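Reopening: structure tokens for the magnesium ion complex, inputs below.
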Amino acid sequence: MAKLYLDIDGVLLTSKNTRAAPGVDAFVAFVTQQFDCYWLTTHCKGDSQSALKYLSQFLLPSTLEQLKDAVHSTNWDALKTEAIELESDFYWVDDNPFQAEIARLTTRQVADRLIVVDLSRPNELFTVQTKLQESLKTPLTSFADHLTAQYGQPDSPSRMAFEEEFAAFKHEAQQH
Ligand SMILES: [Mg+2]
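Re-run output (same inputs, fresh job):
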């Protein structure tokens, strides 16, 4: 399961006149089911309790409960990227990443894993959810990859059996 690093202010809550972000309940239900979630917010430095306490002022109890069960704590000091496992399959959802954090991701060639949220756009969390949903569908890049996924590596018995059958099928088709 891919990891998802989750900011609070400007993502789950609006940053001005703090309130629940539009669509946050559906968004939380989606991410907590589909991703291995981690807090990445100033409200959590080593302990999830302060983040949950803060969120409890704004979110529905059922949404809060899902976050409480699913989201792990992280610890970081100056940069959020300190807490990200950069070698893993991850996504990071944040409204305001620092230049130094983006630079760190760029150096490691994982800048495309950052999803910048702008809650001033309508249906923003739904848009983010759609992007994340797309990332879950690992696209097959070629017919050869498809065959490997379906029948195994080219030298494996199952793949060779398929290749033979396919060759016979093609031969037969050419006869007609
Ligand atoms: Mg933020």
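The mean pLDDT is 92. The first strand starts at residue 3 and ends at 6. Marking as resolved unless the reporter disagrees.
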